[in-house]
Amino acid sequence: ILASLAFGTEVDFDNVHIEGIEKISATDIAFAKDFGFKVKLLAIAEKSDDGIVQRVHPALVPEGTPLAAVSGVYNAVAVDGDRVGHLVLEGRGAGEGPTASAVLSDIVDIARGLIVAPFIVPATKLKAPARPLMEAHKSSFYLRLRAVDRAGSMAAITRALAEALISIERIVQRGGKGDDSGRLPVVFVTHETDESTMARARTLLAQHEDVAGTPLMIRIEDGELR
Fold this sequence. Notes:
Structural class: alpha+beta
CATH topology of the largest domain: Dihydrodipicolinate Reductase, domain 2
Number of domains: 2
CATH architecture of the largest domain: 2-Layer Sandwich
Number of helices: 6
Helix content: 25-40%
Oligomer: single chain
CATH superfamily of the largest domain: Dihydrodipicolinate Reductase, domain 2
Radius of gyration: 21 Å
Distance between the termini: 21 Å
């Protein structure tokens, strides 16, 4: 709905890439803090020459930025415009009090006859947005996997990522006994790449003899969306 208001297009629920937070663990939150990030669930709409990308997913945002500081019942909207630059609007948006206030405000407006078109212009004049492929979206990535604790495993995993055209910025391997199966958590932070390349890399790693399961991937949003 916000994308429709911002870009004057039809509401396009089918064109929203959605990922939940069910796979995020305390381990990821701790690693993110070590890297200087916080884990946040973001809803993002971006307009380019190819169309409008709409996506909802967990992301790492840098600590010390307005979006990283949002917590509790507060929500925030970050807007980037050609003329206004970067704006962040924050306020109470969850819980029974803020919700009741918003509903009551709408009821009062209706009672006073202060009714405007929901999308500023009549819905019949809204146009369907072009749909760029999510696979073409680029960002840096946080990649966590469980590696076999044996000599040479890290070298083999790193080589597999290089073969998948993934450039690594940072690697952190925690020592210790690992989990019940003897696997140790290893985290990679990559340089910028596209979604399709990262998807292929995760598939290759899931089949690798030194990796248990499919690696967890979180996008890093450290650009204008801060």
